[in-house]
Amino acid sequence: MSISIGEIRLRNRVLLAPMSGVSDRPFREIADECQAGLVVTEMVASRELAEARADMVRRAERPPAGSLFAIQLAGREAPWMAEGARIAQDLGADLIDINMGCPARQVTGGLSGSALMRDLDHAMTLIEATVAAVGVPVTLKMRLGWDATMMNAPELARRAEAAGIRMITVHGRTRCQFYKGRADWSAIAAVKRSLKSIPLIANGDVESIADIRNILAASLADGVMVGRSSYGRPWWPGVLAHLLDPDTGAPEPCLEREAELLDRQHQSMLSFYGHEHGNRIARKHLGWVVDRKSAEGRLPFEAAAAWRRKLTAETDNDRVRQALRDLFLRLQDDEARAA
Description:
Blueprint: E1 4-5, E2 8-9, E3 14-16, H1 25-33, E4 40-45, H2 46-50, H3 54-59, E5 70-74, H4 78-90, E6 95-100, H5 105-108, H6 120-133, E7 138-143, H7 153-162, E8 168-171, H8 189-194, E9 200-203, H9 209-219, E10 223-226, H10 236-244, H11 255-273, H12 275-295, H13 301-312, H14 317-338
Parallel strand pairs: 3-10, 4-5, 5-6, 6-7, 7-8, 8-9, 9-10
Antiparallel strand pairs: 1-2
Helix pairs in contact: 1-11, 4-6, 11-12, 11-14, 12-13, 13-14
């Protein structure tokens, strides 16, 4: 199976979710190299992009290499969404995604993100303005609704498809659930039934190949979007794609390859943000690496805590880089002894 967004055909059915503060350019470059079906920028505020705010311009920069360039826009006013979309297209975006799913209070408090699901007529003005402004495909990401009394994702999806949206992604929670409990994969099926021909992507609690098979069966979706399970391992969507549809993704990397990818991501963050700011940004990513290795049973609790301190408290980037190398040499030695 393959997924097409207008004239664009994706390489596989496992996409990387846009995640503010996570899926920056260094993260996406690794995910794309490791064969994620699609990678999307962090959320870019349309008005702030149009006003050339530095952080939004940086988020919307096209990487020097990559398969597809997708920019996610957020906003609450149609003229700014249209202008942001035109700028995104001029920056080289191959497609534009509209954010109507972010549950963060600082976003919904500004009547953007999933707050738009409280007023579908207004949401449609943003969709129509964005679609009309550009010649590239426009997609939409949403939640099931605002809360359990307002589960209106099927209606929004139906109206969005009629307005020219070329793909829908649904996170299987309402906004008021944030990330609590489990995503309701079966509820996404109502969205699929509301669509005529465009692909549906299911999102929420996708961690393993078993999860993917279950969410596809429950939701009737055409593909999946992976978010938090890729923390500390940007190659994970490509690995899941390979397990789902062999030869469309990338095999799981060995420890030596993991170390090389993470080192490259770390160095890219320092270059992208500057060494001081990059050091601060890198800490959470490196912390996730340690957490993952601990969860895999490769690091006892006390050892994990010590490695976390080495990687996240150090301000000398050369020492951080060496500590990351030392961690993976230790893991490779332990693996060799256990073989």
